[in-house]
Specification:
Layout: H1 2-8, E1 12-14, E2 17-18, E3 21-22, E4 26-28, H2 39-47, E5 59-63, E6 66-70, H3 79-100, E7 124-126, E8 129-131, H4 138-157, H5 164-179, H6 183-186, H7 191-208, H8 212-219, H9 224-240, H10 246-250, H11 265-268, H12 285-289, H13 295-299, H14 303-306
Helix pairs in contact: 4-5, 4-7
Length: about 325
C-alpha cells in the first residue's frame, strides 16, 4: 500500500490537448491531481489536523481546502478586541501551515464580524449564499434577481409560440430554480427584501393572464413565500425524524417531558414531538423570522402531520 501511494504521489508529466494541438509537457509535483478518486481523501487526511491549531473556543469548519473559524461574543465586547482574537487564531493556523508546508492564499483570507448594527467586513459567500455583516441578505437577493429577471424577459418574448401550461412549465424549469437557491440562507430576511422575488413571479403571471389563485390551484405554483415556509417546515420534519445531517438535528432539540402529573386541555391536543421554543436568544427579531420562528408552528401542527411516513406526505 505504501509503495502504491508513493507511486501515486510521484511527479508526473502532463500535456494539454485542444483540437489536436498539444502543449509542451509540464510537471505536476506536490499536487493532488484533480478528478482522481484518491485526491479528496488524501487531502482530507493531510488537512484534518489543522483543527488542532484552532483555539478551542473557536468552531472550525472545513470544506475541501477551505477553512472557516468562528465563535460567538457578548455584545459588550468591542470589535477591536474581537479582531485581536481573530488574528491570534489566524496566527496559530498559519504556524500549523508552515510546519505542514501548507500555504494559505492571502487574498482569500478575511475577518468578518456579524452584528445587526456594528458588523464589519466585506460581503462574503458561504455555501453559495452571499452574506452581509448585518445579515440583511440584500446582496444575495440582488445577485439572485440579476440572474432571474433576464430569464423572465427572454421567456415572455417567446410566449406566442407556447401554450400557457408550456410557459409555466418553462418558468418552473428556468426561473423558479434561480429564485429558490438555498432558501434557508435568506429565509430570515425581512419582507421588504424577499418580496422582490414575489414581484418577479407576479409580473410573469400578470403578463400570462394568470391569477395567483389559478397559478396555485391549476398549475401547482404557490406564492414563493408559501413555498419557502413549506420547505423550512420540511427541514424541521427531517431533522426531528433523524433524516437530516447531525448538525441540523442539533439545531432543533426536543422539549423535555413535563414534570407535573396533571394534564390540560391544551396539552392533550399537542403531539409528542415537541421542540424547545424559548431558548436563549430566540426572542431576537432576526431569529423569529428564521426557521427557528417556525418551531412554534411545528409544535401546534396536528399529530397526523408530524407523524407522516415521509417528508413528501408531510
Amino acid at each position: 500500500m505504501m509503495k502504491f501511494l508513493r507511486s501515486y504521489l510521484e511527479p508526473r508529466r502532463s500535456t494539454v490537448v485542444v483540437a489536436g494541438a498539444q502543449s509542451e509537457q509540464h510537471v505536476l509535483d506536490n499536487s493532488v491531481f484533480q478528478g482522481t478518486r484518491l485526491g479528496p481523501p488524501l487531502w482530507n487526511v493531510h488537512f484534518q489536523d489543522v483543527a488542532l491549531a484552532v483555539p478551542p473556543e473557536f468552531k472550525e469548519t472545513k470544506f475541501a481546502d477551505d477553512l472557516s473559524c468562528s465563535r460567538g461574543y457578548d455584545r459588550e465586547i468591542s470589535n477591536e478586541a474581537i479582531y485581536n482574537d481573530l488574528k491570534d487564531c489566524q496566527t496559530s493556523v498559519h504556524a500549523w501551515g508552515r510546519r505542514n508546508r501548507v500555504i494559505f492564499e492571502e487574498t482569500k483570507e478575511e475577518f468578518v464580524i456579524l452584528h445587526g448594527v456594528e458588523g464589519e467586513g466585506e460581503d462574503f459567500r458561504a455555501l453559495g449564499t452571499w452574506m452581509d455583516t448585518s445579515l440583511r441578505m440584500e446582496t444575495n437577493v440582488r445577485k439572485m434577481l440579476s440572474k432571474a429577471r433576464p430569464k423572465v424577459t427572454a421567456l415572455l418574448r417567446s410566449r406566442k409560440y407556447y401554450s400557457t401550461i408550456e410557459m409555466l412549465t418553462q418558468y418552473k424549469t428556468h426561473v423558479l430554480c434561480l429564485l429558490e437557491i438555498n432558501p434557508g440562507g435568506f429565509y430570515h430576511a425581512t419582507d421588504t427584501v424577499v418580496e422582490q422575488f414575489e414581484k418577479v413571479q407576479n409580473h410573469f403571471l400578470r403578463e400570462m393572464g394568470v391569477s395567483r389563485e389559478e397559478a396555485s390551484l391549476d398549475f401547482n405554483l404557490l406564492p414563493l413565500s408559501t413555498r419557502r415556509d413549506i420547505g423550512m417546515l420540511g427541514l424541521i420534519f427531517k431533522s426531528v425524524h433523524g433524516r437530516a445531517h447531525d448538525d441540523l438535528q442539533q439545531l432543533f432539540p426536543r422539549k423535555p417531558p413535563a414534570t407535573h402529573t396533571y394534564g390540560t386541555k391544551l396539552q392533550s391536543h399537542r403531539h409528542s414531538l415537541q421542540l424547545c421554543e424559548n431558548r436563549p436568544g430566540t426572542h431576537h427579531a432576526l431569529l423569529r423570522r428564521s426557521v427557528f420562528g417556525l418551531i412554534r408552528v411545528w409544535n401546534r401542527l396536528p399529530k397526523a402531520a408530524v407523524s407522516a411516513p415521509s417528508v413528501n406526505s408531510f
